[in-house]
Specification:
By secondary structure, the protein is α+β, with helices and mostly antiparallel strands. 28% of the residues lie in helices and 43% in strands. It has 4 helices and 7 strands. α1 packs across α4.
């Protein structure tokens, strides 16, 4: 993964606690300010390489749904997934977890894979003009809420 944006935070929770929380996609709405609900697609019921789930997103009055496929899963260390619409991968998101003396450091990562022609359509769908600034604020909020949930 070659992220355009990374945000890190130290947690007083163990890597195992954080990994269990972020890979339970049914809980994503607890900490994400944009994704308010996720559910496994038919045939999947837990995080595994290749598992698919649907994410429901909201920004003000704008709502949209995406599909995600887990592309990398290393227990207690890494969780990476591609976000798609109609099999078109437009973003890659991930979490890296590093053990520290007092718990762990969690880094949330985002890679924008939209071609230029899709950027305007994306703005119309989501209502987000500056996706990088929006995602940075969302990632900071996500990590803060995640820490509150697991610490």
């Amino acid at each position: 993964m070659e992220p355009e944006l990374e945000v890190s935070r130290d947690f007083s929770a163990s890597p195992e606690q954080v990994f269990a929380a972020i890979t339970d996609i049914s809980r994503m709405g607890e900490w994400s300010p944009e994704t308010y609900h996720c559910e496994w697609q038919e045939g999947f019921d837990q995080a595994a390489q290749g598992a698919m789930y649907t994410g429901h997103n909201r920004n003000g009055d704008n709502e949209w749904t995406t599909e995600s496929r887990i592309t990398e899963l290393v227990p207690n260390e890494r969780f990476v997934f591609d976000c798609m619409v109609n099999d078109f991968v437009f973003a890659r998101w991930g979490y890296a977890i590093e053990a520290t003396d007092s718990g762990c450091r969690v880094t949330e990562m985002w890679q924008d894979l939209r071609p230029d022609f899709a950027v305007e359509a994306s703005k119309a769908i989501s209502g987000v003009e500056d996706r990088t600034a929006h995602n940075r604020a969302g990632m900071e909020s996500t990590l803060e809420r995640l820490a509150a949930a697991v610490e």
